[in-house]
Design a protein that fits this description.
about 180 residues; alpha+beta; two-stranded antiparallel ribbon; 4 helices; about 35% strand; amino-acid biosynthesis; acireductone dioxygenase [iron(II)-requiring] activity; dioxygenase; nickel
Length: about 180
């Protein structure tokens, strides 16, 4: 089951858990209020899983690929890891399904504080368009993930500040409505 918490302010290794002391856990409901959707699936049978098939149909996830993030598998590994960890947003939802390994997605809450979401095998997450976020491996240094898209994939990340994009404005409107 996914676990999330508020991060400490340490600038040490990005792959460390960075839990505040005492730990400040974040619930699935708190993530939902930020527009983050979490699902748990059967990663051992992802190729034939009827739940994944139904999610893809219902959400119109027509495009999919699999990426492995490990120093021996990803070209320009060091550069990519730095890029993934830069705070950014996308104009479309970001959908990731962890098939093997583990890592962290960090998202900003409504008060601009970092929440770390620990992802492992079987976890699927959807980050809404316009949310500031970043990704890093954890101390295991390995993840194999499915990337899903509606239509053709768009890989463009817009580093912060990117507040003038319609996706960001729409996301901020969503947060304001959730707060009411």
């Amino acid at each position: 089951m996914v676990e999330a918490w508020y991060m400490d302010e340490s600038q040490e290794d990005q792959r460390a858990p960075h839990r505040q002391r005492p730990n400040r856990a974040v619930s699935l409901e708190q993530l939902r209020r930020l527009g983050v959707v979490y699902r748990r699936l059967d990663a051992d049978n992802y190729e034939t899983d009827p739940c994944l098939k139904e999610i893809r149909r219902a959400e119109n996830y027509s495009w999919m690929d699999i990426v492995t993030i490990h120093k021996d598998k990803l070209p320009n590994y060091e550069e990519k890891i730095k890029t993934f960890y830069e705070e950014h947003l996308h104009l479309d939802d970001e959908i990731r399904y962890i098939l093997e390994g583990s890592g962290y997605f960090d998202v900003r809450d409504k008060d601009d504080k970092w929440i770390r979401i620990s992802m492992e095998k079987g976890d699927m997450i959807t980050l809404p368009a316009g949310i500031y976020h970043r990704f890093t491996l954890d101390e295991n240094n390995y993840v194999k993930a499915m990337r899903l898209f509606v239509g053709e994939p768009v890989w463009t990340a817009y580093n912060r500040p990117a507040d003038d994009f319609p996706a960001r404005k729409q996301y901020m409107k969503f947060l304001a409505e959730e707060a009411q």
